[in-house]
Every structure is written in structure tokens, then in C-alpha cells.
């Protein structure tokens, strides 16, 4: 076997570039390169080699066989049976309108010599099912099927691999669903936080608006109370009982200027009861003295003693005597 294999390698190294479809090399080497449609008729045993015609495969060897007569073309004629790996590659070539290149490697008078070269070539190129080469052969060559892969074991491994793939696909789908649900929950939580933030901003704006309104009211009341004691009430306001009762009840009096400089008549409006008359007299030092002179006739008629009308209170103020 070693001598035949060495002789075969020497012939391959010495051969020219690829010949045409019908070219036959010298009779000594007996190497013939033929397309699939060319008939091979011989009474001798020979070893043949299939090469992949697809451009990306670079004429890689895909099958080594031994036969006689038209055995080399039988794989093309009967693609419904036989080697499943080779059938699959031939079907792919057929869809591309390509035919495999059939190479007659060597002719022999003895079948045993052909078996030896077949075994040597399979060992050289390696088997695809054992993941050590490109050949579709399911045996190591020779007479016996030693080294063949048990189809039942092959199918069992393929079924187990398919089940494993389906298992991990299920795991992937479950993980994808879990991730999707988690993403939806995160999205809902983010939306809820955004809604809560917008609600807080709205409440803050309302609070600030109310605070501004309260501030304005407070400022208005402060300006009013600061300026009200300095405002002078006209006679028309304090003279009538009805107009006096219409004034705002407060602790500081409403003052009316009299004809005497530094002398003012004040009316203090009380809530739920009659107001009082007060005299404010400047002391000449930037201050003033206040004196209560009687009760206003808001609910009872004036008696000129302790219940005074506006005119009575004004006269007492100007005269400078309290009743």
C-alpha cells in the first residue's frame, strides 16, 4: 500500500494542469479526467475520486471509491439511495447547474491493490462524518465495513442534538419573555415616577400660587393697617350712624381733623357693640395724647353725657373738656 500511494503522489505531482473534458493522458499513468456525462467502460478495477465543482470549494475531494465498469457514475444515476452525505452535496451542485468532476486515480488488475489505494486516499483526505476531512465516505475503505458509522447511533445523536437545540431555544424564548416582562415593568415604573413628578410639580405650582395670593393679601392688609390710622375720615363718614356701622371693625380709630391744629376726633369701630369716641392731641414733641370721651350713638340715641353723637363729640373735643 505504501509503494502504491507513493507512486500515486509522484504521478499527481508530475501531471499537467487540468485537461479538457475528453483528454486522455499517457498510457503509462492511465489517469483520465472526465465529466459526469462521459461514459467510463473498463474491465479493470480502478479507484475514482469525486471533486466538488462549486467555486468556493476549490475542487475539494468529496468521495473516494473503488469499482469497475460504470461504477463511478452510479452515484449520479441513483441519487435516491446510497451515501446520504454525498447525495446532499450532489443535490446542492444540481441546484447550481453543476456536475462533480470524476477523476480516475489509478487502474489495477488486482482488486486488492485497488482496495489498498482506496484506503490510503481515504486516510489522506479524511472523513467528514469523523470531522477530520472533506470526504463523504462512511467507511475506511476496503472489503469490510470497518469504521462505518452506525446509522442508528447517528440518528440517535442527531435526535439528541435536535432535542438539545430545541431545549436551548425554549430557554432562550423563556429568557426573552422574562426580559420583555421586566422591561415592561421598568417602563411602567418609570412612567409612574414621571407622572408622580409631574403631579408634584403641579401641586407645587398651585401651592406657590396660593402663597403668592396670601402674600398679596397680607401686603394689602399691612399697607391698609399702616396707612389707615393716618387717613382722616370726613364728616360725612363719622356724622351718620349708618356710615359708621359700615366701617371695618378694628382697634385703631378713624380720625377726623378739627379746626384746631393738632387736635383730632377719633372713632373706634368695635365689633358687635357701639364704637367709642377718642380725642388725639399733639404734645408738641412728636407724640400725642389720647383720651376717651364717650360712647357713640350707634345703637341708642345720644344723651350728651356718656352717649354722644358726632356733633357732641366734636364740640367736646374743640372745647377740650370731657363729659
- Taking pLDDT < 50 over at least 5 consecutive residues as the criterion, the unreliable ranges are 16-43, 144-148
Q: What would you call the shape?
A: rod-shaped
Enumerate how many helices there are, as a single number: 8
Number of strands: 9
N to C succession of SSEs: HEEEHHEHHHHEEEEEH
Compute the gyration radius: what is it? 61 Å
Helix content: 40-55%
Estimate nothing, just give the exact number of structural domains: 2
Mean pLDDT: 79
Q: Provide the β-strand percentage band.
A: 15-25%
Distance from first to last alpha carbon: 156 Å
Strand numbers in spatial order across the main sheet: 5-6-7-8-9
Class by SSE composition: alpha+beta
Biggest sheet, in brief?
A: 5 strands, mixed
Would you give an account of this structure?
With 323 residues, the chain is α+β, with helices and mostly antiparallel strands. It folds into 2 domains: 2-148, no CATH class; 235-319. The protein has helices at 2-14, 74-77, 84-95, 111-125, 151-227, 235-239, 241-245, 310-319, and strands at 32-34, 45-51, 61-68, 101-108, 254-257, 263-268, 276-282, 288-296, 307-308. The strands form 2 sheets. The protein has a 5-stranded mixed β-sheet with strand order 5-6-7-8-9, with helices on one face. Strands 1-4-2-3 form a 4-stranded antiparallel β-sheet, covered by helices on one side. The longest helix has 77 residues, at 151-227. It is rod-shaped, with a radius of gyration of 61 Å. The termini are far apart.
Amino acid at each position: 500500500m505504501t509503494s502504491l500511494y507513493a507512486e500515486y503522489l509522484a504521478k499527481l505531482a508530475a501531471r499537467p494542469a487540468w485537461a479538457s473534458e475528453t483528454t486522455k493522458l499517457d498510457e503509462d499513468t492511465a489517469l483520465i479526467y472526465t465529466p459526469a456525462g462521459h461514459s467510463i467502460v473498463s474491465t479493470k478495477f480502478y479507484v475514482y475520486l469525486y471533486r466538488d465543482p462549486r467555486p468556493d470549494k476549490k475542487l475539494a475531494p468529496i468521495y473516494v471509491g473503488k469499482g469497475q465498469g460504470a461504477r463511478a457514475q452510479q452515484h449520479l444515476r441513483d441519487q435516491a439511495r446510497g451515501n446520504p452525505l454525498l447525495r446532499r452535496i450532489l443535490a446542492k451542485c444540481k441546484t447550481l447547474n453543476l456536475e462533480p468532476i470524476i477523476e480516475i486515480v489509478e487502474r489495477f488488475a488486482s482488486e486488492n491493490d485497488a482496495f489498498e489505494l482506496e484506503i490510503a486516499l481515504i486516510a489522506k483526505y479524511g472523513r467528514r462524518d469523523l470531522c477530520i476531512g472533506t470526504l463523504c465516505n462512511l467507511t475506511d475503505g476496503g472489503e469490510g465495513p470497518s469504521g462505518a458509522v452506525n446509522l442508528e447511533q447517528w440518528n440517535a445523536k442527531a435526535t439528541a442534538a435536535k432535542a438539545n437545540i430545541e431545549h436551548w431555544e425554549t430557554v432562550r424564548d423563556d429568557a426573552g419573555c422574562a426580559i420583555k416582562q421586566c422591561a415592561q415593568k421598568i417602563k411602567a415604573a418609570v412612567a409612574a415616577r414621571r407622572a408622580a413628578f409631574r403631579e408634584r410639580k403641579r401641586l407645587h405650582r398651585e401651592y406657590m400660587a396660593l402663597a403668592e395670593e396670601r402674600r398679596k393679601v397680607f401686603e394689602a392688609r399691612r399697607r391698609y393697617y399702616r396707612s389707615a390710622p393716618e387717613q382722616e375720615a370726613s364728616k360725612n363718614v363719622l356724622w351718620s350712624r349708618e356710615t359708621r356701622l359700615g366701617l371695618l371693625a378694628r382697634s385703631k380709630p378713624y380720625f377726623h381733623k378739627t379746626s384746631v391744629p393738632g387736635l383730632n376726633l377719633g372713632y373706634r369701630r368695635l365689633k358687635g357693640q357701639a364704637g367709642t369716641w377718642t380725642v388725639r392731641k399733639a404734645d408738641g414733641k412728636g407724640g400725642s395724647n389720647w383720651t376717651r370721651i364717650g360712647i357713640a350713638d350707634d345703637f341708642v340715641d345720644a344723651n350728651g353725657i356718656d352717649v354722644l353723637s358726632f356733633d357732641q363729640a366734636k364740640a367736646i373735643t374743640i372745647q377740650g373738656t370731657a363729659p
